[in-house]
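A quick word before the example. In earlier lectures we treated sequence and structure as two separate objects. From today on, think of them as two lines of the same record. Here is Protein rogdi-like written that way.
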Amino acid sequence: MDSHECARRFPLRIPGVENIVKPEKFLLTSPSADSIKCVATLLGDNICQADIVLKVFKHTSQTHKTHILPDSPWKLQQIQDAGNHLLEAMEKLSSRGTKVFSSGAEVVQLMAEIMGCLIRGRSGLVMPKKKTIEELMHSPNMVRC
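And the structure line, produced from the sequence above:
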């Protein structure tokens, strides 16, 4: 898959690259028991709708429900960050234009920079940054009751 094909799958604005991001619906369940169920709709780097049900089996069976509503989507920063790193790698490639390399060291340097961008993007997806309780509580997505 080339870089333009990858970029089409991220919510990026790149001249000459058509974006094919479409809503995708996911059903997430706990494999061991019915302790958690989630139906989520993902659109690019946003969870645009979700219904989450958590059952707590301590003493009495309690069910907790929460929702992500379409008018207040939840931003997935790691997807945006990965797209930005991909865009940076593509810019490094395109900035070279048709310039001819004068040494192997230049090729190695360019490849190291591009691989660095791609590795940072992959790392952000695999190991996203964790938010503190305060950051989550003060998120614009949280509705105070």
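Notice the following. The radius of gyration is 20 Å. We will return to this example when we discuss secondary structure assignment.
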